[in-house]
Amino acid sequence: MMNDRDEARLVQAYLAAKKVVLRSHFAAEVVAALPDPHKMQENQFLRELAWVVLSSGMAEAVVRLKFPFISVEFLEFISAKAIADQKDECIAGAFVHFRNKPKITAIAYAAERIAHEGFGSIQTSVIDNPIMELQKFPFIGPVTAYHLAKNLGVRTAKPDRHLVRLARVSGFADVQPFCQLISAYIGEDIRLVDLVLWRYATLNRHYASLFSTTSLAN
After folding, report:
1. To bridge 159 with a disulfide, which of 29, 81, 142, 175 should be the other Cys (CB 3.0-4.6 Å)?
2. Residue 218 falls inside a structural domain
């Protein structure tokens, strides 16, 4: 078990990482309001799902560059029914900008499913059991489900490679208790803890060294 001193040192490392992020051009992300899954609208859900589908196995910078063009081809995600009604045109247009047919088709399928089942029904299911329900969409797996859930406002952390590495060098086998400890210690939302750690990792290629020097116990 981690003692009080180790916990304090972990939180100090986190606060040092947060200071770096707040001084960067990503500061606005840290102070932005966190989403609420109960208030999520259909177009927001589609946009977040599309982002996570495209981001799977891809560099964020690449997706960020192409996403505005893909959004236009998918009618700015304004309506699942509108996308479903123009599915072939949406897929063909988006493929010009992002040449991965299965991923582009997965976004169109998601719109078709939402149009058929109704967004209210899907939203309720996701709120009740987010990780399991989100994996019912193509390209949303055991890891990306946490990524999408967090982006939709679910209070969780995503076990991407950066956070997994940080958790392990800090003495944790899993990302969730690692982020939860920091969250509980300083009273900060776990989604924000996740964001700060992930952004810090993208800003500093030696990011793990800040946490490995805390000498945390298992």
Report:
1. 175
2. no
The range of the structural domain enclosing residue 51 comes to 37-152
- One domain, residues 122 and 175: no
DSSP letter at 214 equals: T
- Amino acid of residue 141: G
DSSP secondary structure string for all residues of 105-130: HHHHHHHHHHHHH-HHHHHHHHHHSH
User: pTM score, two decimals?
Assistant: 0.85
User: Per-residue pLDDT tens for 33-53?
Assistant: 788 999 999 999 999 999 999
The reply to whether 23 and 71 lie within a common domain is no
- Placement of tokens 């964020």 in the chain: 60
Q: Can you give the pLDDT at residue 34?
A: 86
- Please give the Cα distance from 65 to 135 (Å, whole number): 26
- 50 closest CA partner among 90, 97, 103: 103
Q: Decide if 135 contacts 142 (C-beta within 8 A).
A: yes
Rg over CA atoms, the chain: 19
